[in-house]
Amino acid sequence: MPPTQDAPTRTRVWRPGRSVDLAATWGTLRRGRGDPTWRRSGAWLFRGINTPAGAVTLGIATSVADAEVLAHAWGEPAAMDWVLDELPVMLGGGDDISGFAVQHPVLDRIWRVKVTSGWRVPNTGLVLESLIPAIIEQKVTGQEAFAGQRRLVRQWGTPAPGPGAGMDLMVPPSAQVIAAIPSWHWLRMGISPQRSDTVIRVARVADRLEELARSDPEAASRRMLAVPGVGLWTAAETAHRALGNADAVSFGDYHVAKNIGWALTGDAVDDVGLAELLAPYRPHRYRVQRLVEMAGLSRPRHGPRMAPRRHLPGR
């Protein structure tokens, strides 16, 4: 059982009729090992979530033997209701894998393992929760990106309700809070003006962007791309987390094209080559990307890692 406190809580048991691989399905939602919105306690995963109805602590565990997901929520009643109602969809309950035809022996081996264990493309319905970290991650190293996101949540977020506060679990700041953060604080967090300006623009149209959650994925991506500073990579990183878009490939990533090309052909490719390589997999191209990632397939690297930038005050 999860930790208990004298706080209102609601519970749900979801029986999807299959296994659910929580780590694989929600693994992309975690922003580095120090993510303050994410905690493990035994068999339980706890997340601090900013729902449309308010902050909530969500604790979930899976039972392989019973093929069920156990969920506890703490927070305001409307927030608890929202997250428990949406839980099946958030965990990929609506992800249709029937049209995915594996066309490569490497992918076939990974697919057989992952689909059996219960991996699905998530669909959190929380656009800003994925979009803002993706903006912070633009054109920087993973170390720098995760540090910036961690500082943002630590300095401007709120303690998670119920047992979350005792676990040092945090809920990300609201769009209203983000839009009001002064420019010098972004610099202190190690987030450059180009990225912070884009984050603020997104926060100012948060209501319209959150409406995209259950709309057509392609239309939703076009709406995100209409915000200055949001590019194809950022929109894709959001779409396959928040919108359940199984075709949203992270074109423009420093590693994705090279790693997929190496895994499937033995040679690194660029984005043009990746588009050609993945064309037969439409509308499931992101599944290929994620399968390669989960299998840890990456091209051999012979040079030094890209060093984090040191000129921002937050460094």
Describe this structure in words.
Helix 4 packs antiparallel against helix 9, helix 11 packs antiparallel against helix 12 and helix 13 packs across helix 14. It contains 15 helices and seven strands. By secondary structure, the chain is α+β, with helices and mostly antiparallel strands. It has a five-stranded antiparallel sheet with strand order 1-5-4-3-2, covered by helices on one side. A two-stranded antiparallel sheet has the order 6-7. The radius of gyration is 19 Å and the shape is globular. 43% of the residues lie in helices and 13% in strands. The longest helix has 15 residues.
Which key phrases capture this entry?
single chain, 315 residues, alpha+beta, two-stranded antiparallel sheet, 13% strand, globular
Share of helix among residues? 40-55%
Termini Cα gap? 40 Å
Q: What would the average pLDDT be, to the nearest integer?
A: 92
Strand/helix succession: EHEEEEHHHHEHEHHHHHHHHH
SS summary, helix count: 15
**Strand arrangement, major sheet:** 1-5-4-3-2
- β-strand percent reads 5-15%
Rg calculated over all Cα atoms: 19 Å
| Overall 3D form | globular
Beta strand count? 7
Q: Which class best fits the helix and strand makeup? A: alpha+beta
- Biggest sheet: strands, sense, closure? 5 strands, antiparallel
Low-confidence stretches: none
